[in-house]
Automatic annotation (TrEMBL), chains A, B, C, D:
GO terms for biological process: one-carbon metabolic process; S-adenosylmethionine biosynthetic process. Its EC number is 2.5.1.6. Belongs to the AdoMet synthase 2 family. The keyword Magnesium applies. This is S-adenosylmethionine synthase. Keywords: ATP-binding, Magnesium, Nucleotide-binding, One-carbon metabolism, Transferase. It holds the Pfam family AdoMet_Synthase. Its cofactor is Mg(2+). GO terms for molecular function: ATP binding; magnesium ion binding; methionine adenosyltransferase activity. Catalyzes the formation of S-adenosylmethionine from methionine and ATP. It catalyses: L-methionine + ATP + H2O = S-adenosyl-L-methionine + phosphate + diphosphate.
């Protein structure tokens, strides 16, 4: 056992699953805020890989500030068009020169954004529907120095920051998360080209009744008329209702596009499948936390993880790591109903030695904290020791940040 | 008593003041994220007033997306200079025409930003040190219709959203909040022109020991050399230490600018008093919550309140209102050690009738929830009924959002 | 014969071909100014066609202000890269709404620019090497009204403006023009991928000696080393020398890339074949006149023809038309050594009735002005009557503007 | 006498004053193109002075590409407003670092633009009516090296370029130039706040009849109604008519704002006195030549002089110098009716030794070229020797470029 400062204590409250009211939200990948998160993180990966390839280590950068300015569209059944393009500004700092060699960070950022959009929001034609611009400054001299060491070593914390993770997900959380994944994934999406990527799902549980509210942008060219639209909305409703039953035995009510007003011929109809085409701006860190959800019932970090440097940005690393630790502990140790892991950094100490690693557990009936304490602490210790794995997996794109 | 759905229950956990570890943070008004919050909110007020003056009611807008791209500076003792300007992009939607009359929303937004900067970050010369740009689109047609009613009526909730507020502040929270106010206010600032506005304060309490870490940008032209700098840092340390003692009897340790490295001649020295001049980008909603703090020990809303339309943006209104209700209840009712008020909206119902108004209380020793229930519920009911007062006070600038 | 005010007079000076010193210049299609001209004109064609397709007539627009901000590149033998992208801002006015229908002018402009670049400067990867942005405002209300008539009618002149054209080209003019066409065309380009599109040719004739100076951007990926470069330069020199001999019997000296400094390893080496990648900005109307040349020995119009509305912009139409008339006259009438045609508009009169159509001729030996006057005037009259053909051919892309 | 290659020959044609048709144009200082010229040149001066002050010599820069994107305004009698701001993008190259010191070129450019606008177009409130943005890149490495020498030496020509100047001005040219100066100057402007700075004057002379067409933006806040407007227009007409009589005995007809349509209530009314507020974009080098006029009857250089580096940009220097020489010769030598001076550079030779200095003269009756040849050549020689004086005076702002 290491001498890391790891604490396990009882949470002394009810598990979120057992609280009276629970609220959960997820913004799908086509939501303007998520588009920004996705681009910021993809730019980050591209820069990490560029630096690794060119100079053998990741240099200083932070690209966590993409701003999306909504466009104007004229959707109509059968196929409308985008009138004014979406404007995307990639903002951040990056090291532009190393050992006398200039590094193409701007071009790399633009390429990453374009590739991300083509892969994830293919309905948007980059260059005509979306203008991608970039303003990457150079970081301050001091910060650039910090990255002199090789990435194999455990870097020092450069800030006082913290991360927090939870496991397991509640039923409501699972429904919200998995519904968006399924709708935007092959399971539903392959047969439903009319469903856009901008899907916002809110789950609200009061006691044993779960209300799931879905706002789903429909794509005009795949819908001939309002009947098609109604059918598409109903199809989403049925799908989510069925999917929810895989995760809960509670009563589930699903509503889709409740803001539609058929009298006013006002539907959630889009040309590109995202509200970014018309009126909804977006930016990084305003949506999902690192576990993919917004969970007001749980402590959350305000940190925008997407786009941050995964080598030394302690807030990003600790958010991803604490989530990973919580999930790992729950997977390996029986008897846990709710676990929160919080990591607090200390400036100037290696990041595998947090100031406090603070786990709050709610055990299942018949299990005590003492029963599981050694196992939990050992796992926390092991995963902390392996912190640089978080960096490696983030660079490879194996971990999501939103 | 109304038939509003107001619930009061015991929080069934320890008050934050009594938890083992507590973390609190505040980004001062000159922090890049706060600059964006401040501008977004000031643009919002300007637009509200423009619409009221021109057409007698507040039209549709949302200006909650200001993006700041950091500049480049060359600070030096005795006075350095800004080399490349900060770039500020005001983003949002606004109604640009009403009844055939064009409304100068872009010019109003630019004026608001300029006036805000001159008032709050006077060291920045707008136009040379800062470029302020603006991209305000028109909202979707549907949304514009929503605002057809007069603002005197209680508007309908246009989204499912929630707000959360707490009272009273813990000692650590008070110290963090008041220290920034005092440092940036007349109490300290008047005699200390060398202290910049970009002050970030983190409070960490473990048991009965409070560590306060201050990162304070110093302004070069008021410091002749490193000795002056050291003196300025020490002065902040002493001031905060003394101020903290007004709020707590616990042990308080204050550190200021811990990242300085005197061997490398690396100090937190700036030309303008904000790190936005060199390397730190910013955007709206990434910093302080509506009560001025980031409080990971408490449930927080991810909603960016700054810049949102105060007439009908339910997330903004409920964040401000729940904070106001919590403070009012604690001020009027004795025996409360910790109170959380959460408001959940329901689309299509008047905003003074939330789906749930959900208060969780921790009473002081000798007081039961039953003792105070009627009083608390009555106050919540009264303040909900008066919800449009939140709008009015926000437009007048009497409520802060960050 | 019409009653158009057509005058033919003797020029009373020596033909340019016979003057002692003659200077001629052409900026090739990859020159930053020509890139802007090309994009502006291609945006103009796209908008004309968009309007014709959607509403049956060309609405008000002017897109004659594209601005190019150079990028940064790191060329090297064997293949370098672009570090910071070129930024292209399309500027102008366009009608965005007609009869309640929104028209996608921004998207159309972006598409036109992208297509133009892909077709003409294929070495630039649009989206990573070039950012294309657009700011198209709405014209003033008055101007929009002007276009209410059908395009079949002859529109009224909306400005006092003039155009000027010449024929035939001198030997030096032909050499400069044709050399660029051949180098950038199939004749040379197909076998010489190492030659970029940014070719600037200056011809200077003193008496019977013609000096042709070529600045030709070479593309790094097709050149392994400096020997390859030297060979590529020499190849251009030989080609232009040979081509020149097709147009003149005078002595011709050709210099290519005279600014190279082999001692300093300073060559005209680029990654993309245009100096826009590194340091050379560009804008519309700063380069070639409507006949493809800059000819200080001849009167020129300062009008930027590229991007102007070809339906009613009198400066553009008269520049194209006067050039066309001069060429037609010289093709159909024998005995002309030098002809200048100048058209001056009069506000409020149909554009086929210029205030003055003023032709100055220098006849060949043995021919008098009187000999050819009737023929010349008849042709001028005929072509003026057919002025809308200029508009039609411009929209079809059959006429070049730079 | 030096061995400079100076040639004087007879122009062998009629003086412009004696030609049948003459056209002259001037865009006043508030015209969008002139605003760009003025800002570009003022940025240039600021950078020259910055470099001189900081490093003792002028470093490499070129800032000849300011782009203006028009705003939107809602003028009305008694006072309207600007709705969407004008956007000004300063574009160019500048040396940003020298001997390890960073130089604030961006801030300097922004300050210069702001000061220029405040001084010359005071009706525009910089920051709300106009957004000034800047994109200054670094020049290519080679070019930066060129400027290693001290500015006291005569620099080498870095390009093959030419400049052309004329004197004396014809009557029509004088009227056009002086009318704009007087209208925008104290003589008329002091008593006529209603007259904007965007004044475009076209002079057309046919034989002995001069038509002067003035387009003059009127400022709404100084005009209560259409009667005031009509009076203001008439006042300009009378003033220009009277002023013209100081320069000519020919018949002069003056028209002002001929595009007004009183039936449609369409006047040339503005809020700021420039059409840049509504629909008219602008850029550098599209308007007046270095002598302040557009003169299609005379050879003109296409070179945009404004914003170019006055130390080594040979096109700018030779345009200013040739104009200066022509004026000086005419001032000092009697008997010249029309003089054109053309200077052609040769790459790599000192700029005081042009490849050719080529003067074409038309003498007055009774004077032969031989009579004046020695005097003219001596003056040309003397002024060429003093070429660096052009640079010095340009940096001091004593020479205008548009």
């Amino acid at each position: 056992m290491s001498d890391r400062n790891i604490r396990l204590e009882s949470a002394e409250k009810r598990a979120v699953e057992d609280q009276e009211v629970e609220i959960v939200e997820r913004k799908g990948i086509g939501h303007p805020d998520s588009i920004c998160d996705g681009i910021a993180e993809s730019v980050s990966r591209e820069l990490s890989n560029l630096y690794l390839e060119r100079v053998g280590k990741v240099l200083h950068y932070n690209t966590d500030e993409t701003q999306l300015v909504a466009g104007t569209a004229a959707p109509k059944f059968g196929g409308g068009e985008i009138i004014e393009p979406i404007y995307l500004l990639i903002v951040g700092r990056a090291t532009k020169e190393y050992d006398g060699e200039k590094l193409p960070v701007d071009s790399a950022a633009l390429r990453a954004a374009r590739d991300y959009l083509r892969e994830n929001i293919p309905e948007l034609d980059v260059g005509t529907d979306v203008i991608v611009d970039v303003k990457l400054g150079e970081g301050s001299g001091d910060l650039q120095d910090v990255f002199g060491e090789e990435t194999e070593e455990v870097p020092m914390a450069n800030d006082t920051s913290f991360g927090v993770g939870h496991a397991p997900l509640t039923e409501t959380e699972q429904i919200v998360l998995e519904a968006e994944h399924a709708l935007n994934g092959a399971r539903y999406g392959d047969d439903h080209p009319e469903l856009g990527t901008d899907i916002k799902i809110m789950g609200k549980r009061e006691g044993d009744v779960i209300d799931v509210t879905v706002a789903a942008a429909m794509i005009d060219q795949h819908l001939d008329d309002v009947d098609d639209y109604i059918e598409a909305v109903e199809s989403v409703r049925e799908f989510v209702t069925e999917l929810a039953s895989e995760y809960t035995d509670r009563e589930v009510n699903v509503d889709v596009n409740t803001a539609d007003d058929f009298d006013d011929e006002s539907y959630y109809l889009t040309t590109s499948g995202t509200s970014a085409e018309m009126g909804d701006d977006g930016s990084v860190g305003r949506g999902n936390r690192a576990n993919g959800l917004i969970t007001p019932n749980r402590p959350m970090s305000m940190e925008a993880s997407s786009g941050k440097n995964p080598v030394n940005h302690i807030g990003k690393i600790y958010n991803l790591l604490s989530t990973h630790i919580a999930e790992t502990v729950v997977a390996e140790v029986d008897g846990i109903r709710d676990l929160q892991v919080r990591l607090l950094s200390q400036i100037g100490r290696p990041i595998d030695e947090p100031h406090v690693a603070d786990a709050k557990v709610i055990t299942e009936d018949g299990v005590t904290v003492a029963d599981i304490e050694d196992d939990v602490v050992a796992i926390v210790d092991r995963e902390l020791a392996d912190v640089t794995e978080i960096t490696r997996r983030t660079i490879k794109g194996e971990l999501t940040t939103f």
